[in-house]
Amino acid sequence: MKSEIMNTENQLIKIFNGKIIAFDGIIENGVIVIRNGMIESLNGDNPDIQNAVEIDANGMYVAPGLIDNQVNGFAGVSFSLGGDELTVEGIEKATRELWKTGVTTYLPTLTTNSHEKMKENLQILVSALSNQEIAVSIPGFHLEGPYINPEDGYRGAHPLPFVRLPDWDEFLELYEAANHKIIQITLAPELEGALEFISNCRDLGVAVALGHHNAPTETVTEAVNRGAKIATHLGNGAANTINRHKNPFWSQLADDRLNISIICDGFHLLPEEIKVFFKVKGPEKTILTSDVTSFAMLNPGFYTTQTGETIELREDGLLHYPEQKCLYGSASPLTKSIEYISEVSGCTLPEAIRMAGFNVAQVLGLNTIGEIKPGRRGDLIFFTVENGNMYIKKTIVAGREVFTNI
Ligand SMILES: [Zn+2]
């Protein structure tokens, strides 16, 4: 049977017979009413909903839409590097493909590049936002770099020639090009001028994340004092030869104010790392991020990067340089992180869902999403779990059905 997307736009919607994932547990047979794209009630009294479009969740889980703060690209579309030029159509395609994986909100992430290229790509992203259907899923952008530690290991796959010191004037130019939509930046706090830059970001309302760095504890503490909120993909973006005592893992884990984002794709972190990180930060301060590249959703095989290197995408989702036997990046959607952290940390499903949505929404000040609650936006996903795998069956964004596989 062919699945067809139902036209639910601007409709009164009643969803029933679902296992609703709330903060503190799962509500069996819950009823959600969405009016004008917003959640009106959860298991409430709604006498006047006779004309509602009814959606039978048929015993499936119903959760808030997933939120991913680090999406470098998707389904062949890259927001920064990549072989093809970035286009508005490409951004629309990536967004539609993300909906199929349950992501209803994401931050297109631009990694280190020349000033001109970053500016150009930000302008193209801004143009894509004139399509309201897409714009609703993109509250802003994330710059990862170019102000990161240039040393091998810490720099990761960011191209050395474009790594530079924090430059507030340059950033403001990018911020203008982005129509003030840069809402997160990942930087290295030990760089000259970085701490002042962090204060400026705080004043502007841009969330600062620490990443690709090797800052001493005092600098991490001072960065957090000045408003830094997240440690970006903790456990990655670091050299293999770090000092066993003095390294950013300990300092960032030990600072209770700092949230951590982690890539739980089964390749970037070992189960024991995830288990310990989760034990330290808990379901309140852990953020699941895919850090996914344009190679996600492509067929397994060999590909050539923009810089001419050969990489392999394996059937199991590993994306690596086959010769060097090291990772190139991630190709797994955010659902994989939910599956994997559930498996290795013992967290509950509601906790995993919270870590893949609500937590990052709060950190970024996106207060209308991430929760199934009256007054929140009608962003919902329907899914099943079989043998630990999560299957997205339906996605609704602001009350509009954008994907169905039922
Ligand atoms: Zn990174």
How would you describe this structure to a colleague?
With 406 residues, the chain is an alpha/beta fold. It has two domains: 13-64 and 372-404, Urease, subunit C, domain 1 (Roll); 66-363, Alpha-Beta Barrel (TIM Barrel). The chain is built from eleven helices and 22 strands. Strands 1, 2, 3, 4, 5, 20, 21 and 22 form an eight-stranded mixed β-sheet that branches. Strands 6-9-10-11-12-13-14-15 form an eight-stranded parallel β-sheet. Strands 16-17-18-19 form a four-stranded antiparallel β-sheet, with no helix packed on it. Helix 1 (88-100) packs across helix 2, helix 2 runs parallel beside helix 4 (168-177) and helix 9 (334-345) packs across helix 10. The mean pLDDT is 94. The structure holds zinc ion. Residues 144, 156, 211-212, 233, 237 line the site of zinc ion. Zinc ion (ZN) binds at residues 144, 156, 211-212, 233, 237.
List the keywords.
single chain; 406 residues; alpha/beta; Urease, subunit C, domain 1; TIM Barrel; 2 domains; 8-stranded mixed β-sheet; 8-stranded parallel β-sheet; 11 helices; 27% helix; globular; binds zinc ion
